[in-house]
Amino acid sequence: MSSRASSTSLASPIVLAFPTIDPTACQVGLINPGDEVIYKQFFALPDNVSKWIGIGGFEFSDPGTTTGSDMTSPKDSCKAFIDSLKQFLNKWNFRRIDIDWNGP
Boundaries of each GH18 domain copy (predicted)? Predict the structure, then answer.
């Protein structure tokens, strides 16, 4: 994504999707270190654009995938996921989140 090549006049919010989720440690992070460039370009978009992060997607919703339910129960996993998500949001200065979780 190039912030210079993107027209934002008709778009708000814009959702950047998806960071990765480590289902064992319940940690949110970049899929690969090179993604930092994409995140920096994303935040170079004009200030009038509401910038959200989308989390979940295939990691929560593909058949046979239990990442979402595993991270919301038991209580310790849920807390670890929420704490990690808050750190990720703060690190990148996201103010809104879209959770894409269709089940199970």
Answer: 1-104
How many of the other CB atoms lie within 10 Å of CB of 75?
A: 8
Give the length of the chain. Answer: 104
DSSP the chain: --TTT---TT--SEEEE--EEETTTTEEE-SSTTHHHHHHHHTTS-TTS-EEEEEETHHHHSTT--HHHHHHSSHHHHHHHHHHHHHHHHHHT--EEEEE----
pLDDT in tens, the chain (104 residues): 554 555 666 667 899 989 988 888 889 999 999 999 999 999 999 888 899 999 887 666 667 777 777 777 788 888 999 999 999 999 999 989 998 877 65
